[in-house]
Write a structure and sequence with these properties.
By secondary structure, the chain is an alpha+beta fold. Strands 1-2-3-4-5-7-6 form a seven-stranded mixed β-sheet. It contains eight helices and seven strands.
Length: 206
Amino acid sequence: MSWLNPVELIGYAASALVVTSLAMTSVVRLRVISLIGSVTFVVYGVLLGSVPIIITNAAVAALNIWFLRKELGGGRALGAVPIAADSPFLTDFLESHLADIRRSQPRFAGAAVGDVALVLTRDGMPAGALIGRPSGPATLEVTLDYVMAAYRDSKIGAWIFGEGSKALRDNGFKRVVTTPTTDVHRSYLQGVGFRDDGAQMVRELG
């Protein structure tokens, strides 16, 4: 059968990778899988001796590499914008993403008046939210730390507690505490520098 030809199998594999990339919610994963697919298509084009396939997919591979460098190499503008906890925009944003939020933070019950709230942005567009309440001297107890699925590989979480922590320190906070309720949330917190402190996890803001 012709489809069992090794060259054709490479073509099918390349097509499968490109289709799979389109199903990714993460921008970084989409680019990585698309890059692998385009490189595989270049190999397929070389084996067929097809210059159009080689040129087209080499260009796609180069574009994927360029966007990945921007995504992972600090080329994206990350920000944290203060917002009122009862702001209609924040309320609508949280409601529209509530199902996704509760996959990792199922106890989140919404923002309360008096909470500290930040809209996390990437390239000026809303990408997530950080909400908490003052708890002890210079301490913020975080009740929500959420980033949309498309931007979770953009290191926004690590940024807000590291280089971007000025947005929190300007409000007088020197440390952040939170209580993870799922394994995925605990793993995330460990990845962005939190340490265990009894039932809570703590991150000092430098």
